[in-house]
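Quarterly update from the structural biology core.
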Amino acid sequence: QGAGVLSRGHFRARAMESQKQRLSARLSSYWKMEVGNALLVPAIMVFVCVSYDQTLGIGLVLAWVPMGGLLVLGGLYWRAKLHQLEGRGETMRAFVPLARKWRLPLLATTVLALVLAVGVWLTDLAASTGERWAITIAAALAGLEYVNYYHRQLQHFDHWADFRRLISGNGFAPSSMAKDLKRRPSDADHAD
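Predicted structure, tokenized:
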């Protein structure tokens, strides 16, 4: 090769660096969006209910607990994944035991929220129709987030490769967090 001629390796390295930058930007927005939604979704629910003079009760708070907890956990996970990509695996090493510790409490509160969501439609447990809908939405979101983080990747609309895999008939892949929770702690320094 002569001077000034770029090798395939150079182009491959630049492409990989560009891919890493795009992934870093995506992860950076993911963690902020998840944590923000833990506050924004309840605020929207309150705003809509209050705007329509709908009474809110303790049932809605009970449904918010697993939803908010899972959104915050998801935000912490994507932040740890971002740090891992940047070569700072200590964040993931700290996150994994936390996610394992909170798995059963989040499952239990999610199941309770789902039972409550069914109950408000069968009884007069809800303070109003608005609260009934808000409880149902919060419980459904909690259930979906639990599956999305601890089991199967449900979100496919924000990344073309994920969407292509879904429509190819390969079904729902294990979630990224589920795979990370199965790894040994010493593997936390290495991103997928």
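The chain has six helices and no strands.
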